[in-house]
Write a structure and sequence with these properties.
Layout (H helix, E strand, L loop, with lengths): L1 H6 L2 E4 L1 H4 L4 H28 L6 H17 L3 H10 L3 E3 H34 L4 H4 L2 H27 L7 E2 L6 H6 L6 H34 L3 H33 L7 H26 L1 H25 L1
Parallel strand pairs: 1-3
Antiparallel strand pairs: 1-2
Helix pairs in contact: 3-4, 3-5, 3-12, 3-13, 4-6, 4-12, 6-8, 6-10, 6-11, 11-12, 12-13
Length: about 325
């Protein structure tokens, strides 16, 4: 009976009430950033897919990261804009679970792809003569597929456990649903879920993080043995990935701290901005970063834009 009632409940996203006076600021800012996220990531995907010279593992993983950013960037921005405009700050149980699914699969796919990219850079720099034999097209495809399948499988299991909780509260102090906020509202004992969650964090976050750190420690040791020019050249291929990695760590750390600890001493507006950091800024920064810092992608984008501009100029001259 209680579970049946739980499925019919709606949660109140209380953060909207706390920042109601700033709603138009959020609507305008997100309304400007959301199209940029779509265009920037779409441009990376379009360029890598059509440019044959970019059909190499490193660029394919960058393209996959852009796909993940595109997926994650659409997870909450339209929802927040619509919620502010309609001034309806409630969300149904089912919609809440769907939103959690989008957010958590995005985060899991992101860290999985960053781990694969670190491994690719590690093999490329530490074992350059064996690179083509180790990083084969089949392994590249398998790596990309697994960065999507494993997170979706893992989140499906986690969310199925959450869906079976009996809920005794309806107030979520955020602008979107997150799994731990739902878990904290559960009536039943959540000890087993905390054990499961801690185990998942070790395998999904901690282990990939150590793989990435190990990869870049080895890369750094190799680079230290090279000439200054060689170090600059090698590190130039790693800088975008490292910035994307630290950007992800900073954003997810903000979210983890807010979910697990009492942050009432922090102004509400700051808490809302920090909670949106990795869902808005990461999908925005990453494509701009790779478009500027990765020379091959930058040149390919410029060629595509110049070619498109030239074609349009030709059409205009012919019409006139």
């Amino acid at each position: 009976m209680l579970q049946s009632a739980t499925r019919n409940i709606s949660f109140t996203l209380d953060a909207y009430n706390k920042i109601h006076d700033l709603k138009y600021v959020f609507v305008v800012v997100l309304g400007l950033l959301f199209p940029i996220i779509i265009i920037a990531n779409g441009l990376i995907i379009y360029t890598v897919c059509l440019e044959r010279k970019l059909h190499k593992p490193m660029y394919l993983f960058i393209c996959n990261l852009a796909c993940i950013n595109l997926y994650g960037g659409t997870a909450v921005s339209p929802f927040i804009i619509a919620t502010f405009l309609m001034e309806d700050y409630e969300i149904t149980w089912f919609s809440c679970l769907v939103q959690i699914y989008f957010i958590y699969t995005y985060v899991s796919c992101d860290i999985a792809n960053l781990t694969v990219m670190a491994y690719d850079r590690y093999i490329s720099i530490c074992y350059p003569l064996k690179y083509d034999k180790i990083v084969t097209p089949t392994k590249v495809i398998l790596g990309i597929v697994l960065t999507w399948l494993l997170p979706f499988f893992r989140v499906t299991i986690s969310l199925s456990l959450t869906a079976n909780f009996d809920i005794c509260g309806v107030i979520i102090e955020k602008v979107y649903c997150d799994n731990y906020s739902i878990v904290k509202l559960a009536c039943s004992d959540i000890l087993y879920y905390n054990i499961y969650g801690s185990t998942i964090i070790v395998f999904v976050v901690v282990l990939p993080f150590f793989i990435i750190i190990y990869s870049y420690v080895k890369i750094t040791l190799i680079c230290l043995k090279l000439s200054k020019r060689g170090r600059v050249k090698l590190f130039s291929t790693c800088v975008p990935h490292l910035i994307a990695l630290f950007n992800f760590i900073i954003g997810s750390s903000f979210e983890l701290l807010q979910s697990r600890f009492d942050m009432r001493h922090v102004p509400y507006i700051i808490r809302v901005i920090l909670s949106l950091y990795f869902l808005i800024l990461s999908p925005l920064i990453n494509p701009v970063l790779y478009g500027i810092r990765t020379q091959a992608i930058k040149e390919a984008i410029m060629r595509k834009l110049c070619h498109t501009f030239y074609q349009r100029q030709t059409v205009v001259r012919c019409v006139t």
